[in-house]
Amino acid sequence: MAKIKTASESLTIMTNIVLPNETNSLRNLFGGELLAKMDRCASISAARHCERRVVTASVNHVSFNHPIPEGGVVVLESKVSRAFSTSMEVYVDVWLDDPINQKKIHTNEGIYTFVAVDEFNRPIPIPEMIPETEEEKLRHAAAFRRKELSLILSGRMKPLESVELKKLFQEPQPAKKDKK
Ligand SMILES: CCCCCCCCCCCCCCCC(=O)SCCNC(=O)CCNC(=O)[C@H](O)C(C)(C)COP(=O)(O)OP(=O)(O)OC[C@H]1O[C@@H](n2cnc3c(N)ncnc32)[C@H](O)[C@@H]1OP(=O)(O)O
């Protein structure tokens, strides 16, 4: 297995049309249906990265910025944004594609954590991930903070044990004066 992979090697794109049985009473795509689609897309990215079985460990963030109407063409794009030891963060971007007017609206994004597991569901090491584009580098840089926040929210880490996250809340230290 390659020890280092790029983000683009995990790129997964899923295109669907929204059917009536997936909509809410406003005839827009039901949020839970979208979450399931995002989880499927992200899990394939995670499995592509580590070439192993993966499980969803947490859904760290999901935003619903724009409704997706019945009959709409929904495009999901996911990539691993950072690989840790056995876990990895996967970013999912969702677009409403209007092929007739050639418009694409960014409707949602979601950030998931997956863990690679062996046949006994024990976490196993995964390859490193190298970001290449500017967006991949930004997402990679912020992923450690998000991991810490997710671990704190799930009760797996005490806030004072965090490294990167704690820095955000620390008062800037006054500049030291030169001694005469
Ligand atoms: C071959 C290629 C083909 C490609 C094409 C095929 C595609 C084929 C795709 C099929 C894809 C199926 C995808 C199913 C997706 C579900 O639906 S899975 C179902 C829902 N999820 C579950 O049931 C998981 C249940 N939970 C568990 O099994 C265990 O809690 C876990 C997640 C394995 C963790 O186990 P644990 O013993 O607590 O492990 P622990 O060592 O404490 O933590 C392991 C890592 O997870 C991290 N972690 C744990 N919890 C969290 C959290 N809440 N937040 C952040 N990180 C966390 C830890 O920090 C640690 O990270 P590292 O520092 O090692 O990187």
From TrEMBL:
Keywords: Hydrolase. It comes from the Bacteria. The keyword Hydrolase applies. Residues 8-120 form the HotDog ACOT-type domain. One of its GO terms (biological process) is acyl-CoA metabolic process. GO terms for molecular function: long-chain fatty acyl-CoA hydrolase activity. PROSITE patterns: HOTDOG_ACOT. Transmembrane segments: none annotated. The keyword Hydrolase applies. GO terms for cellular component: cytoplasm. Belongs to the acyl coenzyme A hydrolase family. This is Acyl-CoA thioesterase.
